[in-house]
Amino acid sequence: MRHVAIIGSGPAGYYTAEALQKSFGEEVRIDMVDRLPVPYGLIRSGVAPDHQSIKAVSRRYEKVHLSPHVRFVGNVLVGRDVSIAELQGLYDAVVLATGAPQDRPLDIPGSDLPGVFGSAAFVGWYNGHPDFADLGPPLDVEAAAIIGNGNVALDVARILSKTSEEFGGSDIVGHAFEALAASAIRTIHILGRRGPHQIAMTPKELGELGHLAEAAPHVDAADLPPESEDAALDPGLRKSVAHLRGFAAAPTDKPKKIAFDFYASPVAIEGDNRAERLIVERTRLDKDLRAVGTGETYTIPCGLIVSCIGYRTPPVEGVPYDESGGRFANRDGVIGDGLYCVGWARRGPSGTIGTNRPDGFEVADKIAAALGQDSSAKAGATGLDALLQSRGVDAVAFCDWQRIEAAEAARARQGSPREKFIRLDEMLGVCRA
Ligand code: NAP
């Protein structure tokens, strides 16, 4: 028997559990530890609420728990309730699958003003993450600016643009659904510090902006490179750029405007005790395709600013950390003896949900090679339970989560799959009822 603890129950954690089950069969016991009483990490709190087909992958993760050898141990924060060193004493291998839930800071003057948010916070707010339930972003303003040219910027722009009807079938939480229905925002700027050929937006997600009921994308044709240059792009990017060309040529007669500002780098946020305007420097590309400031600036009046410029993994005491990469210091998933990392905690925040699968399998192979055939002398689950009990930690099991899940489905808005609980005490109340 081998005992493995996986910290984090998002996609990377589940693919690792799946791979370990394949490697060891009956000979492994896995504890998936999560700081929240609810599993699925990014699937629940990051993937956009109107992208239910992507969220459906959680049904696959659920199957991992059909095995009696895999437990969910929720409401346990590693670093507070139990340390990494203690886990290493209890398990043959510890895998950090903690994702990258913190915003990379937008390091410009004024970024601490009210009305400025990172995407982890803003996305967490509309997805019902307990940490951001009280964010209260100002939607009583005429214009918003979104910084970044990746898929998260697209998610945020789309969510700010949709009508209530367009949220039909989504699981956007009630507080965000109501606030967005009353939103005064009519103009949304999406700022890219580089050009249309350097976007990190995928075609399907970008194409969605062309089908919104009340909002139209605005692209200035003058920003687009000559069409002949598209041939050199990789096929995915070429399709995305084709969407931008389509937007530049399409009618823009809808009440809300999603304006693409290319070659636009934010340099400061100004306002009287709250964000009121974003100062932007125009850029050009150098020979290495990096953005270089031109010295010319312009102002975007806006009361809401969401920076979608990437994420970081929170450090954990006792685990080597790579400051510049914002992730654990590791070599192909190995941090040290018996300590591993997978997914965004290993690679940084890139790729799709499925990109985490090979990561999980690679690390499971490494664990199998390191543990060999010897049976474990570690205490595993029994030891963890005793430790948590001695500290009065109210750990949550998978069947508790299933109670939360049923209660969320029972109180859903008509047409919505669930109305999430947004507070830990509500979640724990359902578990213990
Ligand atoms: P991303 O794809 O890495 O994009 C980050 C963007 O921020 C880039 O355009 C980058 O520009 C820009 N940026 C970085 N630092 C900046 C700064 N200081 N000032 C201005 N701009 C800055 O990150 P993401 O959008 O957060 O997405 C993370 C991952 O999740 C990606 O792999 C994404 O595809 C995935 N995702 C997928 C979906 C989906 O499939 N539906 C939805 C959401 C997210 P430069 O290129 O110039 O650095």
Write structural notes for this entry.
The chain is α/β, with parallel strands linked by helices and 433 residues long. The protein has 2 domains: 220 residues, 3-Layer(aba) Sandwich (Rossmann fold), CATH 3.40.50; 206 residues, FAD/NAD(P)-binding domain (3-Layer(bba) Sandwich), CATH 3.50.50.60. 32% of the residues lie in helices and 20% in strands. The chain contains 15 helices and 19 strands. The protein has a 6-stranded mixed sheet with strand order 3-2-1-4-19-18, with helices on both faces. The protein has a 6-stranded parallel sheet with strand order 6-14-7-8-10-9. A 3-stranded antiparallel sheet has the order 11-12-13, with no helix packed on it. Helix 1 crosses helix 12 and helix 14 packs across helix 15. The longest helix has 16 residues. Bound molecules: NADP nicotinamide-adenine-dinucleotide phosphate (NAP). NADP nicotinamide-adenine-dinucleotide phosphate (NAP) binds next to helix 7.
Give a quick precis of the structure:
The protein is α/β, with parallel strands linked by helices and 433 residues long. 32% of the residues lie in helices and 20% in strands. The site of NADP nicotinamide-adenine-dinucleotide phosphate has 25 residues, from helix 7.
Anisotropy-based shape: globular
Largest sheet: 6 strands, mixed
Radius of gyration, in angstroms, nearest whole number: 23 Å
Give the distinct bound molecules: NADP nicotinamide-adenine-dinucleotide phosphate
Distance separating the two termini = 35 Å
Number of E-state strands: 19
State the helical fraction.
Answer: 25-40%
Estimate the mean pLDDT confidence: 96
Structural class: alpha/beta
* CATH architectural label of the largest domain: 3-Layer(aba) Sandwich
| Content of β-strand | 15-25%
